[in-house]
Amino acid sequence: MQTALLIEQILNGLQFGVMLFLMAAGLTLIFGVMGLINLAHGSLYMIGAFACATVAAATGSFWLGLVASLAAAAAAGAIVEVTVIRRLYDRDHLDQVLATFALILIFSEGTRWVFGSFPLYLDIPPLLRGALPLPGGGAYPAYRLAIIGVGIAVAVGLYLLISRTRLGMRIRAGESDREMIAALGVDIRTLYTVVFALGAALAGLAGALVGALQSVQVGMGEPVLILAFVVIVIGGIGSIKGALVGAVLVGVIDTLGRFLLPVAFATFMDASSAAGIGAALASMLIYVFMALVLAIRPQGLFSAQG
Amino acid sequence: MMGNPRETILNLALVLLLAAIPLVATGMGEPFYVTLATRMAILALAAVGLNFLLGLGGLVSFGHAAFFGIGGYVAGIAATHAFNAEPLLFGLPGTNQMIVIWLAAVLLCGLAALAIGVISLRTSGVYFIMITLAFAQMIYYFAISWPAYGGEDGLSIYVRNGFPGVNTLNGLHFFYLCFGLLLAALAVFSVLRNSRFGAALEASRQNQQRLAAVGIAPFRVKLVAFAISGMITGLAGALFADLNRFVSPSMLSWHMSGELIVLIILGGTGRLFGPVAGAMVYVLFEFYLGGVTERWQFFLGLILLGVVLFARGGVVGLIAGKARHG
Amino acid sequence: MAEPILDIRNLNKSFGALKATDNVSLDLRPGEIHALIGPNGAGKSTLIHQIAGSLRPGSGTIRFLGRDIGALGVPERTRLGLGRTFQISSLAPDYSALRNVMLAVQARQGTSFRFVKAVMRDRSLRDPALEALERVGLAERAHVSAAELSHGERRQLEIAIALALGSKAFLLDEPMAGMGPEGSKALTTFLDGLRAEAPILLVEHDMDAVFALADRISVLVYGRVIATGTVEEIRHNPDVRQAYLGEEG
């Protein structure tokens, strides 16, 4: 039974990591191509979750909700890019931080305005309600496995997109030399809008998928956003591969830390203090990990900037 | 070197205005406005600390809530132990003396800033922003999950801590205590900016390569600046906890870090009185917009966006014109 | 022969397959101007970076005043007395010319962790800074911000900073670049006098200046020193004529 519990926790960590990857991939892509730090990425995650919950409630179909989440987040991303973000590419990071911080206030308060302060609920689709048996006994929810599958599919898809397609070629060119791709006649404004919308759609997808596990509410994107920052700092800003490795590491370390640290402390102190101290230290674990990575490699594991 | 005369007049006006609000409010029997002015003074003090790093050193710390919160918890924890007459650490008693609390807050924040700075300052740019944010989050989550001092619910200070010769329970007296510390911090800021250390710090913002090429290692300069900055913000945190007689993880949250940056930008980055102007405007926004609509943060977002996109000099910049350097 | 001030032995640096510095040895002796010339892409910048400390050499030694400085960073090397100017002016743009030089004076005094006294009222900073500005002919522009100085004035300011550092050797990276003919002439005269104060390693494209000033010249091609010698020796060296001046035979 212990093995099954451990496998379950590892899978939970993977699922968490995959979800972080969906967020981090967009963030790191946007930073790599446009040099923009986007705090409002968590708002796009929230928009995806709200769109999914609303459409699923209206139509009764989770799948339509999922499509809606992609569309809504991509559309919101494109609109924000054209109206605000575009003016920030040439600004310093401080201005980018502030403007996107302002966007968070607008999005969060705006969503509360439209949907009220009560959380929405999103059900797991009937197809994925079951559980699959684990080796060593126990079972694991099919829906969480499906999230892991989606994450892997997105990682493969992004890899193919960037290495095999014209759009990917332009993205790579944009990362290395902005003037050159302008000189090649690529419409850089459209490219930026497309990249931003793509990143937004991934965030929206993550929000919708997680919406069925947790409640859908204002502010849900912020803790995830900060973890996604930790992920891309660990992985190296601008690197999709770094985002994937960083996300899985953070997901697994965080989940296992919360599971194992209280158990470990209980071997030499009483159970309730062990639970308290273990939980407190577990909550700091990934930040300690990040500090360690940076102490050794200040540019992260797979820095695109060299 | 004489500063910009219009800026000097504006600075004086801001000081007099802030000093006068609580007097007038007390005269009119509106103690709430005294609290509002105290809030302005304390947030301004916290932002003076950040302005030192961000304005002079060009280092965008998105984690200054860490120091604000640590300062707050020092006040809360010391007061709780004093109230319950339980020893604190190594047999040391708790205390309700502000002077002791301030010293402890400043010392602890200085140490925390050194530890965070040693790692964060190895990086620059976006990395620095995100790492300072992450460290603050680490402390935030620690405060939430550490049950001894209230965890998520926070910690109440039953009786505001004391200061010799001052009745801190009187709102007006407490205001002038905070106001005095704000003025002292502004004086420190001004002296440091004009000193050799300030020159090295400003040079590290303008051109790090140049600083290294004259033989000054930028890292040490920035680390000392980070520590001083954290200490000032930590002191403000201790006052803030005493103002509200309450400290909670929200003082450590990234919204708080964001707010401090917003204060500086609203006021004017790197300007001596930018944080004062910013805090006054911000608290007024919060109060009046909050009175008009529950959705005040929505409008705050719009205003902030407008300031960033179109009015980068902040309030001081709008009124006093461009900054001048000697 | 006097002990060299700066002594570089068997320096190597590669970027991937490219050997940017290929077994370079050269030295700088007291009182001389040693010019380093070579076509674009010959590896002059890479070499300067390694000497100044902003780039770690792959292998080889750099000795300055008899001391191995290979492991030291830029600030430490500057404090030992290696003063450099940048190919593209690198200044504190918001600061006046005076304050840029004052920063160097303060660095030389090793007093950057003083927190109280105002620098602008500090004669021990101002006087040496003004003197350095005077020497390069920038005294009248002392209170103009570096960003508002003309290109040529910024080059002069870079030199004033190196002077104020009390350098024991100067590393001047294309000081004439972008200067008008008049400016170049004035600077040539100035550098001619400067060599008595401290030797100069001069990277320069302006051949008139190089031939007028240099006691010795080293020619760098594809990361290698193909010749070192007096102006006359270099002028008549067939390898140099072929590789650098682009002449056949």
TrEMBL record, chain A:
<feature type="transmembrane region" description="Helical">
    <location>
        <begin position="70"/>
        <end position="89"/>
    </location>
</feature>
<dbReference type="GO" id="GO:0006865">
    <property type="term" value="P:amino acid transport"/>
</dbReference>
<keyword id="KW-1133">Transmembrane helix</keyword>
<dbReference type="InterPro" id="IPR001851">
    <property type="entry name" value="ABC_transp_permease"/>
</dbReference>
<keyword id="KW-0029">Amino-acid transport</keyword>
<comment type="similarity">
    <text>Belongs to the binding-protein-dependent transport system permease family. LivHM subfamily.</text>
</comment>
<feature type="transmembrane region" description="Helical">
    <location>
        <begin position="274"/>
        <end position="296"/>
    </location>
</feature>
<feature type="transmembrane region" description="Helical">
    <location>
        <begin position="190"/>
        <end position="213"/>
    </location>
</feature>
<dbReference type="GO" id="GO:0005886">
    <property type="term" value="C:plasma membrane"/>
</dbReference>
<protein>
    <submittedName>
        <fullName>Branched-chain amino acid ABC transporter permease</fullName>
    </submittedName>
</protein>
<keyword id="KW-0813">Transport</keyword>
<dbReference type="InterPro" id="IPR052157">
    <property type="entry name" value="BCAA_transport_permease"/>
</dbReference>
<feature type="transmembrane region" description="Helical">
    <location>
        <begin position="44"/>
        <end position="64"/>
    </location>
</feature>
<feature type="transmembrane region" description="Helical">
    <location>
        <begin position="16"/>
        <end position="37"/>
    </location>
</feature>
<feature type="transmembrane region" description="Helical">
    <location>
        <begin position="225"/>
        <end position="253"/>
    </location>
</feature>
TrEMBL record, chain B:
<keyword id="KW-0472">Membrane</keyword>
<keyword id="KW-0812">Transmembrane</keyword>
<feature type="transmembrane region" description="Helical">
    <location>
        <begin position="99"/>
        <end position="119"/>
    </location>
</feature>
<keyword id="KW-1133">Transmembrane helix</keyword>
<protein>
    <submittedName>
        <fullName>Branched-chain amino acid ABC transporter permease</fullName>
    </submittedName>
</protein>
<feature type="transmembrane region" description="Helical">
    <location>
        <begin position="39"/>
        <end position="59"/>
    </location>
</feature>
<feature type="transmembrane region" description="Helical">
    <location>
        <begin position="213"/>
        <end position="240"/>
    </location>
</feature>
<dbReference type="GO" id="GO:0005886">
    <property type="term" value="C:plasma membrane"/>
</dbReference>
<dbReference type="GO" id="GO:0015658">
    <property type="term" value="F:branched-chain amino acid transmembrane transporter activity"/>
</dbReference>
<dbReference type="Pfam" id="PF02653">
    <property type="entry name" value="BPD_transp_2"/>
</dbReference>
<feature type="transmembrane region" description="Helical">
    <location>
        <begin position="260"/>
        <end position="285"/>
    </location>
</feature>
<dbReference type="InterPro" id="IPR043428">
    <property type="entry name" value="LivM-like"/>
</dbReference>
<keyword id="KW-1003">Cell membrane</keyword>
<dbReference type="InterPro" id="IPR001851">
    <property type="entry name" value="ABC_transp_permease"/>
</dbReference>
<feature type="transmembrane region" description="Helical">
    <location>
        <begin position="297"/>
        <end position="320"/>
    </location>
</feature>
UniProtKB/TrEMBL annotation, chain C:
<keyword id="KW-0067">ATP-binding</keyword>
<dbReference type="Pfam" id="PF12399">
    <property type="entry name" value="BCA_ABC_TP_C"/>
</dbReference>
<keyword id="KW-0547">Nucleotide-binding</keyword>
<dbReference type="InterPro" id="IPR003439">
    <property type="entry name" value="ABC_transporter-like_ATP-bd"/>
</dbReference>
<dbReference type="InterPro" id="IPR051120">
    <property type="entry name" value="ABC_AA/LPS_Transport"/>
</dbReference>
<dbReference type="InterPro" id="IPR032823">
    <property type="entry name" value="BCA_ABC_TP_C"/>
</dbReference>
<dbReference type="GO" id="GO:0016887">
    <property type="term" value="F:ATP hydrolysis activity"/>
</dbReference>
<feature type="domain" description="ABC transporter">
    <location>
        <begin position="6"/>
        <end position="247"/>
    </location>
</feature>
<dbReference type="InterPro" id="IPR027417">
    <property type="entry name" value="P-loop_NTPase"/>
</dbReference>
<dbReference type="Pfam" id="PF00005">
    <property type="entry name" value="ABC_tran"/>
</dbReference>
<protein>
    <submittedName>
        <fullName>ATP-binding cassette domain-containing protein</fullName>
    </submittedName>
</protein>
<dbReference type="InterPro" id="IPR003593">
    <property type="entry name" value="AAA+_ATPase"/>
</dbReference>
<dbReference type="GO" id="GO:0005524">
    <property type="term" value="F:ATP binding"/>
</dbReference>
<dbReference type="GO" id="GO:0005886">
    <property type="term" value="C:plasma membrane"/>
</dbReference>
<keyword id="KW-0813">Transport</keyword>
